[in-house]
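Appendix B, Record 12. Input sequence as logged:
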Amino acid sequence: MSIKRLKHVAQNFGQIFCGWELMFDYKTLAELGSGVLSIDILRQECKHNDKEIKPLKIVAGIHNWMVSDLEGNKLSIGDIDIAELKVEFSTNRQVGQKLQGASWADPTKHFISCALKCNSIVKSKGREFTSIYYDQEEWPESYSWVNS
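Logged structural output:
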C-alpha cells in the first residue's frame, strides 16, 4: 500500500465530513446535541456517545470517496483494516449569524453553531495513519428541512 495515499485518505476524512454535504445532517446533529460521533467508515456504522444510531448521510459519502480514491490509485479496500472517524462536536442555539463567511437564503432569527474536532485513523498491514481536523459550522435553524 502507498504510505502517501493512506496518509491522504486519513487527512481527508475530517475535511469531507465538514464539507458542504454535511448540510443533509444538520437536523440530526442539532437533535443529537453535543457529544462524540464514532464512525466506522468501512462498515458505514455510526455511534453517538457510544450508542448505535442510524448512520449520518455523510458517512456513505465518505465511504464512497474512500473506495473511489483507493481504486483510482490501484489500491484495494480489502487492504484496509480500520478506517474510522471520531467527531467531537458541540452544538449551541444562538440568536443571529456569528460567522460571516456564508450567506443564507431566508435565514431564521436563530442559528445553530457547531464546533467540530475530527480525529481520523486508517490502519493497513500494521501501519497506522492519523489526522486531526478542526472546523466551526453554523446554519440557520430553518435549514433542518434538508434532512426531512
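The helical segments are 3-17, 26-32, 57-72.
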